[in-house]
Every structure is written in structure tokens, then in C-alpha cells.
Amino acid sequence: MNAVPQYDSLAFAENTLKLRTYRQQVIGNNLANSDTPGFKARDIQFGDVLKAQLEGRASSKSIRMATTHVAHIPGKVSQEDPNLLYRIPDQPSMDGNTVDADIELSEFTKNSVLTEFAINRVGSTIKSRMSAITGQPS
Description:
single chain, mainly alpha, two-stranded antiparallel ribbon, 4 strands
């Protein structure tokens, strides 16, 4: 039995890129609110969320609204993402803000590099598939 799960490389690259982009938004939000009193820094467990998405266990961030008439336009109500966790601060500030700008900037930079890698990975996966389809070397 294979201990390493097998995923489609394109689906893996796509989910990785989407999740990296989402994490970049979360960390950017933390940085933007570094001086907001009472703001709590958030982040995701990237590996756990990616695994859940690839296995089809990812939760939706929106709830469908019920319609009572066929002419009604179905809408979505956004709910809080259950994958967002609160970051445990090393040294919380007196105003209740838990954002450590140094840690956030470090995570933002690291995630930027990994996002660029994910973009390159998607490109190389598409190139190799096009090469296989056309029969021409890439």
C-alpha cells in the first residue's frame, strides 16, 4: 500500500495557488490592522487546509439562501472561514492587538516566494500536458 497519497498534479497546483493567494490576503489583513486596538491576528494551517481541499473535505465559506418563489434570485450569505485560526502572540500589546509586525512581514515574504513557486508550478504542469497532447517537446 502506498503511504503517500496521489493527487492530480494540476489540481494540486491549482489548489496550492488558490490557498497561497488566500493566505496572502489574510496576512496582508493582519499587517493592515497592526495598529488597530483589539485586532486579533489570523492565519491558516496551510498543509491541513490543502489536504482537506484535495480530499474534498473543504468547507464552503458561504451559505446558500433559501428562495420562496421561482422568481427570487438565489443569494449567498458569507460566514466566517472555519480554517482561519487565531495566531498566539509572543507578547500581546496593552490594547489587545495580537499582531507582531515582524512575524507577519516574515510570513508575508515567505508566502510570496511560495506563491511565485506555485505560479511557476502551474505553468510547468500546463506546458508538460500541452507537450504530451501535441507530441512536441516543450
